[in-house]
Amino acid sequence: MIARRLLAFVIVVLGAILGVFAPAAAHSHDHGKTVLFQDTTIQPGETVDGDLTVVFGNAKIRGTVIGDVNVVGGTCTLADGGVVEGKQTCLTSDAVGTIAPWIATAAAPGFDDQSRKLYVKLGSSLVVVLVFLLFPLRMRLALDRVEKHPGLSAAVGTGAAVAILPLALLLLISIVGIPLIVLEIAALFAGVWIGTGAVALLVGRRLWELAMPRTTPAPLAALILGLVVVSAAEIVPVVGWAVTALVWLIGLGATVLAFIRPAAWTAFAERTPIGGPPMNRPA
Q1: Do residues 225 and 210 touch, judged by C-beta distance below 8 A?
Q2: Does the reported pTM lie above 0.70?
């Protein structure tokens, strides 16, 4: 219950910051639909032009979903006449119940440092998956930035990390800016989670293409595969902290760039070598 309440609080805060919970039209959802902690039904004649994401609730599709259907902590039912053009991914309440205790037991006595790190990584990976389900477009934009301009993403992430403490001190000194420190911390966590997901998506997709070059992985499958690989590298003794720092810096920079219009920085990336060569495979 405590983990679920904390998760709900984080989701609501991030939603307020990123502005994704704007109300949609009654029969048309042009940018997908996200529902938290309640059941939802896509009625006949209703169209979701994007992904349908339901967290801790049940989804019943009687209309049309052009994108994917992602359900965490509930069931997914496709009624007669319902159409889902994308893929359906359903993580039931029982499955979530088997995952969530890992977060709580990570702090319990009797675990050595290596086991505790493993459980913490499992918990943080679960948060990244939930962030992807809630903000798929923003994470895909960050993936595009880190894929095409990895060097620029690392430089921007380093600059953002260096600016965190001075900005917090300026807000603290100004007195009136003290409430904004909370927003700064929330934005930092959001940036790290979205960026980590973007890096994991890139890693998972590349590994999938190497193993099965003739198939295209689902974004959620590529994300989970990438998180497994990245988390395994991060808990390796001695060098694990360097992997974590690299992932966080590149991911944070890619997230910052994802919130900036490309015209504002594309010209800079083209005339400087800091962007690095594109990491995407040739067509």
Answers
A1: no
A2: no
